[in-house]
Amino acid sequence: MRKNSRFSVLLLALLSTVLLISSCGDRNSDNGDKPQWVDYASELKLDKNSETLKIEASVKSYIDGDTTHFYVDSSVCPDGILKARYLAINTPESTGKIEEWGKAASKFTRSKLESATEIILESDNGKWNIDSTGERHLVWVWYKTADGKDYRNLNLEILQEGYAISSNASQNRYGTYCTDAIAQAIANELFVYSDEKDPDFPYGEAQEVTLKQLRTHIEDYEGALVAFDGTVVMNSSGSIIVEEYDQENDMYYGMTVYYGTSGLNGEGLEVLSIGNKMRVVGIVSYWETGGVYQVSGLEYNRRDKENPRNIKLISQGHTAGYHQVDAATFTSEMNVMLEEEAVVFDYAGLVLNTSISMNDLTVNSVYTTPSGDSAGAMTLHCTASDGTAIDLRTIVLTEDGVKVTAERFEGKTIDVKGFVDFFDGEYQIEIYSIKDVTFHN
To answer: Which residues contact 234 (CB under 8 A, 6 or more apart)?
Structure first.
C-alpha cells in the first residue's frame, strides 16, 4: 500500500505514545492483542460553565473531514458564516488534493452532523482563535442527536475512529483524551493507521476519457482517476477551466480543474497557462460548497517527466471558443446521442465550465455583494430580446483603475463573453473582465 508520507512519519511518533500509555496503565485493559474499546467521545463532557466561548450553530456546507462551514450569530462573524477548522485533528484531503481515506473521513464527519439536532462550537480558551490561513476558526465541535442525552465531541470521535492524525492533539484543553483516542486507533489499526487499501481511492492507471464523456456521465466517474485533453481558457483562484470542441454537436464541453492545494510549482504551473492545450490527470470529486463536480489531485514530477500521473503540455497558442449561444437555447433542453440512444440534458448543464458569448441582454436590476470575500461583485438580472431571463455574475470589476459599480450596467443592453457557472441551484454566466462586455447604449 502506498502510504502518504506525512502519515508514515507521524505514525512512528505516535507509536511511542502507545507504549507510554500502555506502560502507565490507562483506561484500556488487555483483551488479547488489542485493548478494550473506550468511547472517549462519550466520556468527555461539555462544560457549559467553563471560560471557553461557545455558540450554537447549524451547517451551511460540508467541506471535508476536518473543515465545515457553519451558520452562526453575527456577533461572532459579521456575515453569519463561521469557517470551522477542527482542533487537534488532521484528516486526509478529499477536495483539492485527494488522499487515501480522505473521502471516508469526509463522509464520517458529514454523517454525524447530519444526525445532529443541536450543534455547539467551542473555542479552546477565552477567545475565538483563527488558523494560519486567517479565515478559519479553530474550534471544538459538539453535537447532540435526538436519542442522545449528552453532547459528543466530534473532534475526539474522528480521532478515536481512526479518520485523522494528530494536529497538536496534546497541546489543548482536551489533550489527554486526544492522545488516548489516537493510541487506541493505532492499536486497533483503524483506517489511516491500517495496512488496508481505501476502497474509495483510485489506485493504478488513469481512465482515458474525453470531456464529453465526463460531462455526460459525471456521476459515474466520481472518485475515479481520469486523463483527458483540453485547452486552458481560464485560470483564477487556484482553478483552471479546460474545454474541448465537439464537432458532432457543435458545442464545447468543459471542466473545472482545481490545483490550489496540489503543490504544483515552476514547470508544473506553466502547463496551466491560458492558451495551452494540456493533458489533465486527476481525480473526479464533488465540490460540496459549489454543488458541482471538479477534477483535482494534479501532479507534476519534473525529475520523472514520463510519469503517467504527470500533467503534460501538448501545444500552445490556443484561444477560448466563446461559443455564441442565444438565451432560449441556453435555458432549454437538448438531446445528445450516447451509445446509440438519445439522452435529454439541460443545455446549460452540458456547457457548464465552458466559454460562451451571448448578445442583446438588457440589464433590469443589479445586486451587489455587500461584504465578505466577494464584496463588490455583482449579479446582473437580465432579459434577452425574446423575453428569456438570464443571470450574469461578475467578479469585482475595475475600469481604468476604478471599481465598476451597478450604475455602469443598470438599464443598459449589452453583449457579453464569460464562462458558464452554477450557483445556488441556477446556471449563470460568470464575467471576469469589463473588456468582455460590449455596451449598446
So the answer is: 240, 241, 274, 320, 355, 419, 432
Query: In the 3-class helix/strand/coil scheme, how is 306-339 assigned residue by residue?
Result: CCCCECEEEECCCCCCCEECCHHHHCCEEEEEEC
**Fold of the CATH domain 323-439:** OB fold (Dihydrolipoamide Acetyltransferase, E2P) (2.40.50)
Whole-number mean pLDDT of the chain? 90
> Which amino acid would we find at residue 325?
V
CA-based torsion, 135, 96, 370, 399: positive or negative? positive
Burial 57-88 (b: 16+ CB within 10 A, else e): bebbbbbbbbbbbbbbeeebbeeebbbbbbbb
Backbone angles phi, psi at 405, to 5 degrees: -115, 175
Closest CA to 52 of 119, 112, 140, 134: 140
User: Which residues make up the CATH 2.40.50.140 domain(s) of the chain?
Assistant: 207-315, 323-439
Categorize the per-residue pLDDT at 33 as very low, low, confident or very high, splitting at 50, 70 and 90.
Answer: low
d(Cα 105, Cα 161) in Å, to the nearest integer?
9
The CATH number assigned to the domain with range 207-315 reads 2.40.50.140
Region of 386 on the Ramachandran plot (φ > 0 left; ψ -120 to 50 alpha; else beta):
alpha
Q: How confident is the model at residue 289 (pLDDT cuts 50, 70, 90)?
A: confident
Of residues 263 and 104, the one with the higher pLDDT is 104
- CATH fold for domain 5-193: OB fold (Dihydrolipoamide Acetyltransferase, E2P) (2.40.50)
pTM, full prediction: 0.77
